[in-house]
């Protein structure tokens, strides 16, 4: 990487152009890029990503936008390249949090964005400006952006030429070179070449298929393959694809018409996108091609084609529900031909194959997979990427839109075409690319990360909530109720409840351990946790007491049982002077070592570790709730049924019922 002072002929140092991706790197999804020059900030796209396994209860993933919130006064506007969710899905949400004065983008993308903004109630927060090919818009004092028509799986898609005081950057957006596009809108390669001749400072290019050799086949190539399957089908044809794959959907409608089949649409996004695309003229199909789903059942199967969502095995999408027999209108028939015209996004593979299995088990013919020619990617392969490099001839190169290995592969492709390794940066979300006319370097990174939204898209699932959910899902939960008097005396045996914990330890042992932890905390921590205010009752930090017990028990479980369940301790305070619970008589010797660094831990009250028999008479006058019904709580069980020897004596029939319920559940 070279550095220079960036001085212009008048000797005044120009600031660097700063390009900061907040999403889209080391991942596929939530593409969000910040361009910064002087006091101006311009955004390019703002997408969302879908949750990965382990993100329990998370609906969508957004980039952390702290940087934009902090600098919102400098945001002059936004550019949208095309209407895919990973490029526009975050905008409506961001408009609730910071200002974007104007958004320039293609007509189709902005039409789709309008729907999302209406839903989110943010229509009045910005101005939407539609652009046409070769339009140039000015953003702030320093940026001018030309929209260059490109080809992609989405119609009305653009690459960008972004000109700033330090030079021109080509930002490819998502692209492949498709010379026979379904809608006839060809890639404006002449314009790319024009900028290549003028001199491109830096190319930011789509890396999705950087590992795949060759050219990406044209979208049209799936037409004859789909045609063959549709024309050979004896019964109904059911096709699933991404609703946003406008070209694919267009071809499917064309094939339905050609094969004399009426089309029924299922799935909200399928209905919405097709309505929008037809309204704006991106899709042509006669009105009478479509038949409402309730009436299409009256037509012969051979004249029916159902087009629906669910190509990714999403649990609530139409085809997934049909596969489970849960769809109110459509049931699988053994004569159906079901076509998956999409490939699973990494992470969705398992739910997709499960859906295929379920459909096949019901006797349907299912067409899926790479060999069938029924799907091609919307992102260029290595040769497409080379063509982009050849046309734009950039001085510097930054591979974007891809996972790390794709970025590395793309950088190798660029090097094979003569771009020196020193002129290429592989960056991560939050990294700052600093560009001057003769240097590229990384600046200090800005805050980047993820923000997880729940189903409401308003509630943020923060790291703590997520960690707790993961713990619950993976290791279960143990709740612990302790009765402690305000003068630091354990007034009743702790009650332990276990849910979803796989362990050989029974409730009895856990209860004993809990008792020791409480004893230890009272013995060793009470003075710190309790402030004598001079009045009658001391001021006890009950939350602190709970926390200490939780941490102690957590450590012991990790050490002795190698499990890390979520532990929730609740303390019920009892009045000062409540007699101490005397501990357990039938002691089980504790052979375990004392916890590290907490010597003497087990020396406190309750060391004997007796079993809290349900009938035990407690000397707890001040703790009615805890002492009243000890029967059920102390005998709760783990999901894994313990070996007979470990079973507690059954105090009530209730316990056995619960145990078997846990085993099947
Ligand atoms: Zn795209
Ligand atoms: Zn994309």
Account of the protein in words:
30% of the residues lie in helices and 22% in strands. Strands 7-6-5-3-2-1-19-20 form an eight-stranded mixed β-sheet. The longest helix is centred in the last third of the chain and has 20 residues, at 542-561. It is globular. It binds zinc ion (2 copies). Residues 31, 84, 86-87, 174, 401 line the site of one zinc ion (ZN). One zinc ion is lined by residues 82, 84, 152, 154, 174, 378.
Gyration radius (Cα, Å) is: 32 Å
| 3D shape | globular
Strand order across the biggest sheet?
Answer: 7-6-5-3-2-1-19-20
Q: Tally the helices.
A: 20
Protein structure class: alpha/beta
| Share of residues in strands | 15-25%
Based on the model shown, name its key terms.
about 675 residues, alpha/beta, eight-stranded mixed β-sheet, six-stranded mixed β-sheet, disordered N terminus, disordered C terminus, binds zinc ion
